[in-house]
Amino acid sequence: MARPDELVFAPLGGVGEIGMNLSIYGLGNRHQRAWLAVDLGVSFGDEEHLPGIDLIMPDISFLEKERKNLMGLVLTHAHEDHFGAIIDLWPKLQCPIYATQFSAALFEAKCAAERNQPKIPVTVVPSGGRIDVGPFNVEFIPVAHSIPEAHALAIHTEAGTVLHTGDWKIDPTPTLGSPTDEKRLRELGEEGVLALIGDSTNAVRDGRSPSEAEVAKTIIELVKAAKGRVAVTTFASNVARIKAVADAAKAADREVVVVGRAMERVVQVARETGYLDGVQNFRSPEVYGHLPQDKVLALCTGSQGEPRAALARIANDDHPEITLNRGDSVIFSSRTIPGNEKAVGSIINNLVLQGVEIITDRDHLVHVSGHPRRDELRDMIAWTKPQLLIPVHGEALHLHEHAKLARAAGVPRVLVCRNGDLVKLGPGDPGIVGEVPSGRLYKDGTILEDSKSRAVVERRRMAFSGCAFVAIAMTEQGELADDPEVDLVGIPEKNKAGEAFDELVFDAVVSTIEGLPKPRRRDPDALGESVRRAVRAVINEHWGKKPPCLVHVLTV
């Protein structure tokens, strides 16, 4: 009798980290599998550890090799950490993409904003709809989240049904869009769920995430009480929050001025797709200065401290149209993503120095998470009754706590895996059965670099310890044709004794050359390596750091 096909799962991003989500599901046997990809997101560079790197993306080399077996890419929702890598990576895959209307429209607007507008077709699926993607039947189940049209995916196969939750929470009173479809999730539980692949972001937090409706109420109270100008910053994709801010402005008889391209793009897409029906028209930044101080509200990008976003420019007092003064207020209707604390803190300090009042979620309920806390995770388990639970979308602590909670809730099997692990889901006993290539790609300007890229490694070293440049002109007989040239970048001018570093390096270069036998002096590679080692050694002796050293040898 023929053995039934195996259903396998492998995360290529988003496990052991928050961001860069890419999951793949395979159906078949070891020799031949059909693959389904879910989400293709980015995470953001950290200037301290990755200077000059804008975005980090999952390594898709495995999918490139399996391209003919890749049936499609399905999107749970349109947050950057779930769809931000498509423009850069889709040309390597060329597979069909499936998404609901809002996600597809936001992606189209994102493509339109690119310098060379890419043509990437997306098939629109209705919310709650079902589609066949090769041997996978994928059902889009509405869930509440901080962006319209977030969906859990029920992936139906002959080996069983997997529920891939995507990002979700339970919000019985969302201010926009559908609540989480408890009825359908309970039905799935009765039908049988082989595996639950679940969001772990808030697995360390007790209780339940508050509702968007409570945030909307707080924002109305704060905007009504404000005396001067008001600026509100939030994640541009949070359309429910944009609507709440617009309602607050209307209640306080203020005009809404939208500041920042990302916010303008989302507002345009939300209007086109009907999510801002009945909401007043917003004004452009040029109008801001002509409106009375108590009649204007600026809705700004930059809640994460992004240096080129609207709020950073306002805080630095270099925005062409928007200014804030003593007595004005800024509401941070967002949480600071770990890693962005310094950048956000700098903006807040600059605003405080201008006399602006700062309101954050530390003192008022101006933001709620779009992810489930522990009681909501328990509800999802109770509704869907999975045979197996795999925590994803979280760092090691989040995955560990989600797994512990699942075991306590009576889930028969719980498995914690890492990016690149190939997990057999069924039939039979689940477990890690292999590994697939995984890793990171860096978006460096317009170039995609491997994470081991020399440029990235060297730039990190240069950021820490500067760089030494040495140019040497030699005759064919192995004699110096002229004095060596030394240029030190990012290195102190003098050592502790007050001696000039460029003179110390110059002397080390000359003495090294003079100390070499003639045959080595006539070999540019050998000469360059000897000088490089000597320069690094003398700088280390006087400074305690070994900078990269580039030596150029010219024979004249």
TrEMBL record:
It holds the Pfam family RMMBL. Keywords: Cytoplasm, Exonuclease, Hydrolase, Metal-binding, Nuclease, RNA-binding, Zinc. It comes from Bradyrhizobium neotropicale. The keyword Disulfide bond does not apply. SMART domains: Lactamase_B (SM00849). Residues 21-219 form the Metallo-beta-lactamase domain. SUPFAM superfamilies: Metallo-hydrolase/oxidoreductase. GO terms for molecular function: exonuclease activity; metal ion binding; RNA binding. This is MBL fold metallo-hydrolase.
